[in-house]
TrEMBL record:
It is found in: Cytoplasm, Cytosol. It comes from the Eukaryota. It catalyses: D-ribitol 5-phosphate + CTP + H(+) = CDP-L-ribitol + diphosphate; D-ribose 5-phosphate + CTP + H(+) = CDP-D-ribose + diphosphate; D-ribulose 5-phosphate + CTP + H(+) = CDP-D-ribulose + diphosphate. Residues 18-28 have a biased composition (Polar residues). This is D-ribitol-5-phosphate cytidylyltransferase. It comes from Panthera pardus. Pfam families: IspD (PF01128), ISPD_C (PF18706). Belongs to the IspD/TarI cytidylyltransferase family. IspD subfamily.
Length: 425
């Protein structure tokens, strides 16, 4: 029985999100705005419709459960919402047949604050079921009614706290709010005979995306008044608030990352975006504090190419503090540069720490151990035997989503024999 992993670290580093991740001061200002002076912050919950079959994806598995880096797509969306500490409940609507699979995902990735409800046969019905779970007029409701409810498709994994805060703040003021994006294609209206009737002026129109947010009573009452036609064929929650609540939603410009995973190409795009984001963080671990350590040359090169390069030394007196601090920033790629030792045990200790930190539950962790060895002072076969242990250990830790590899750089120490001063010129 595998030991239950400890609860995941409370927050992912915001830089795993969209490029526009706001600074802490921006968020604090927005939070202050969301919390008018003298009034308490609104209780906020989220409803995630996740009951679709993903027909347009063209694979047997519903797209919300399709793997991205060997982890279901929906887990990334849950993680994005869990990062936002002021969302108190996350209600996910899944079909009965996927309920067990969803419970396993919640347990395996240690998702928190999640409640599950049965999905409906349409997206609107799934959302309505989610809202019912939050309404206090339901006999078996265990959740308290929020003041504001966020509605966000479970297949939109790249949602950041800033846009969530914007739509919630706007919903509190206007009653409803939704993220929008510029149209990429022009919208046209075909005539009955399949020819162009007219086209819409693209600049005057926008694509409605997610997240959206509503005063709970506004959207819940709209759904309660909904016609069956709306529930069956509608695709726009903002329209329901307008039609049944006479609320004109505030439109919030969203970032390019808010797109919905719909086709297979979207899954490939999501995977490459996630890979790119986690690879932007590198932690260089050096085996000495020497400022002339060759690892600093690598640091200079990496800093030109990456957003975040952290450096630490693995001296025993430093290991705990330095590495713990770096792990708290959710770094998933480690390059260990060893000039003083080729001791495999040091790497094992580092990998054990990474494993205990549960980092690799959410994303694969990469550890590259580089050994600079002077071939005149270190017999090759003796060191290779020692380093070959890495290969066996790598097979073992790969099962726990830690990818370990070793790199041996054999080089001659450059000596100037003293009897030949010309070498010194
Ligand atoms: N009966 C439904 C249909 C859709 N959804 C959810 O609504 C979101 C957006 O819908 P869409 O992209 O249309 O998903 P699918 O309906 O699964 O896709 P398709 O139309 O290609 O089948 C998805 O998270 C989907 O799981 C839902 O909760 N209940
Ligand atoms: O479920 P579908 O993909 O058909 O449509 C969902 C989208 O309409 C919806 O997510 C946004 O347009 C915002 O309402």
């Amino acid at each position: 029985m595998e030991p239950r992993p400890a609860a995941p670290r409370p927050r992912l580093c915001d830089s795993l999100g969209a490029d526009q991740t706001p600074s802490a001061s921006t968020l604090n200002a927005a939070r202050a705005e969301a919390r008018p002076a003298g009034r308490r912050a609104p209780a906020v919950a989220a409803v995630l419709p996740a009951g679709g079959s993903g027909e347009r994806m063209g694979v047997p598995t519903p797209k919300q459960f399709c793997p991205v880096l060997e982890r279901p797509l929906i887990s990334y969306t849950l993680q994005a919402l869990e990062r936002v500490c002021w969302i108190k409940d996350i209600v996910v609507a899944v079909t009965g047949e996927n309920m067990e699979a969803m419970k396993c995902i919640i347990q395996k990735y240690q998702h928190q604050r999640i409640s599950l409800v049965e999905a409906g046969v349409t997206r609107h019905r799934s959302i309505f079921n989610g809202l019912k779970a939050l309404a206090e007029d339901q006999p078996d409701s265990k959740l308290s009614k929020p003041e504001v409810v966020i509605i966000h498709d479970a297949v939109r994994p790249f949602v950041e706290e800033d846009v969530l805060l914007k739509v919630v703040t706007a919903a509190k003021e206007y009653g409803a709010a939704g993220a929008i994006r510029p149209l990429v294609s022009t919208v046209i209206s075909p005539s009955a005979d399949g020819c162009l009737d007219h086209s819409l002026e693209r600049a005057r129109h926008r694509a409605s995306e997610m997240p959206q947010a509503f005063l709970f009573d506004v959207i819940y009452e709209a759904y309660q008044q909904c016609s069956d036609y709306d529930l069956e064929f509608g695709t726009e929650c903002l329209q329901l608030a307008l039609k049944y609540g006479h609320i004109k939603a505030k439109l919030v410009e969203g970032s390019p990352d808010l797109w919905k995973v719909t086709y297979k190409r979207d899954l490939y795009a999501a995977e490459s975006i996630i890979k790119e984001r986690i690879s932007q963080h590198i932690c260089l671990v050096m085996d000495t504090k020497d400022e002339n350590h060759v690892g600093h040359r690598l640091e200079e090169v990496l800093k030109d190419a990456l957003n975040h390069v952290k450096v630490t030394s693995r001296l025993p007196c430093h290991t705990g503090r330095d590495l713990d601090q770096i792990m708290s920033e959710q770094c998933y790629s480690y390059v260990c540069v060893n000039v003083m030792t080729s001791d495999f045990e040091e790497i094992r200790k580092l990998v054990d720490m990474l494993e205990e930190s549960n980092l690799s539950i959410l994303y694969p962790v990469v550890v590259i151990s580089v050994y600079f060895l002077d071939y005149k002072s270190v017999p090759f076969d003796q060191k290779m035997e020692n380093l070959m242990q890495i290969r066996e250990y790598a097979k073992e830790v790969k099962k726990r989503n830690i990818l370990l590899c070793g790199l041996l750089i054999y080089y001659p120490q450059v000596f100037y024999p003293p009897q030949d001063p010309s070498c010194l010129t």
